Automatic annotation (TrEMBL):
PANTHER family (alphabetical): ABC TRANSPORTER ATP-BINDING PROTEIN ALBC-RELATED
Key words of the record: ATP-binding, Nucleotide-binding, Transport
Location of the ABC transporter domain: 2-220
Record keyword Cell wall biogenesis/degradation present: no
TM ranges: none
Protein's name according to its UniProt entry: ABC transporter
Length: 260
């Protein structure tokens, strides 16, 4: 398994913390899905897990040798053809050239890459460029697959093919981490990214126990039904756990647990 422990990330020394203590385990056998709106930090977290950027704090352990990473935006300004580009990627991953080229043809056909792998990537449409990004992630069977918003940019047949490829990888034992917007949430173990932290989606609609992280915090500010209040612990019930958690975390509460 790949384990994220207390990971923090900001993009400049004085900038805001985009991730502020993220804990996550990406296990085989279940697809892990990070859900959030625009600009909350999904891509930031996925890049870190994939090893494409480094955390400012905390650590990520158990990343396997073969990581397939599909970024949200494929690099467009590449003059090489898809076949040349994927040939380089194959060499970097230790694949024999013949095997790489056979795989390029197979993936180009599965994803309906138009007009094909032998034109410059820069000349491809956005969606077809995204297919090349998918192809590089699947060139060698990934042990960890990280896909940033799989629905973005691809047409319906390509999305269905990508879903099939992901489920084949899952059956082969890959660990899978996806990000998604609320409008296109895939099946899996869902986590919501709120104020730089991950909250398991199973907490929605449940009773929630919170701990104040600074003195003087009043439970009145939680704007929810207070079920129990004791020193260091408040249990609330709400129909809108997202909004409650968003405000509570911002105000200085920390999540203890969901109380069934
Ligand atoms: N390379 C970067 N340099 C500076 N700030 C960045 C960089 N990448 C992301 N950010 C900032 O980090 C925050 C989170 O961005 P991120 O792309 O991770 O969000 P996201 O949840 O994936 O958004 P979207 O749904 O729009 O793709 C944003 O405020 C963004 O401006």
């Amino acid at each position: 398994m790949t384990v994220v422990q207390g990971v923090r990330k900001r993009y400049s020394r004085t900038g805001p913390w985009v991730l502020d203590g993220v804990d996550l385990t990406v296990d085989p056998g279940v697809v892990t899905v990070i859900v959030a709106g625009n600009g909350i930090g999904k891509s930031t977290l996925l890049r870190l897990v994939a090893g494409a950027s480094v955390p400012t704090g905390g650590r990520i352990t158990g990343r396997p040798d073969t990581v397939g990473y599909v970024p949200e935006r494929a690099p467009a300004a590449i003059r090489m053809t898809a076949r040349q580009y994927l040939g380089h990627i194959g060499r970097m991953r230790g694949l024999p050239p013949g095997q790489t080229q056979a795989r390029v043809d197979e993936l180009a056909e599965r994803l309906s890459l138009v007009p094909g792998p032998d034109v410059p990537i820069a000349s491809l449409s956005k969606g077809n460029g995204q297919k090349v990004a998918v192809m590089q992630a699947f060139l060698k069977p990934p042990e960890l697959l990280v896909v940033d918003e799989p629905a973005t940019g691809l047409d319906a047949p390509a999305r269905a093919e990508l879903a099939a490829m992901m489920s084949e990888a899952e059956q082969d034992g890959a660990r899978i981490l996806l990000s998604a917007h609320e409008s296109a949430v895939p099946n899996g173990k869902l986590y919501r990214l709120l104020n730089g932290k991950l909250v398991p989606e199973a907490l929605r609609g449940m009773r929630i126990a919170l701990r104040p992280t600074r003195p003087g915090l009043s439970s009145a500010g939680l704007a929810a039904e207070i079920l129990l209040e004791e020193p260091g612990r408040v249990v609330v019930r709400t129909d809108d756990a997202d909004t409650l958690l968003l405000k509570a975390l911002a105000d200085g509460w920390s999540l203890i647990e969901a109380v069934s």
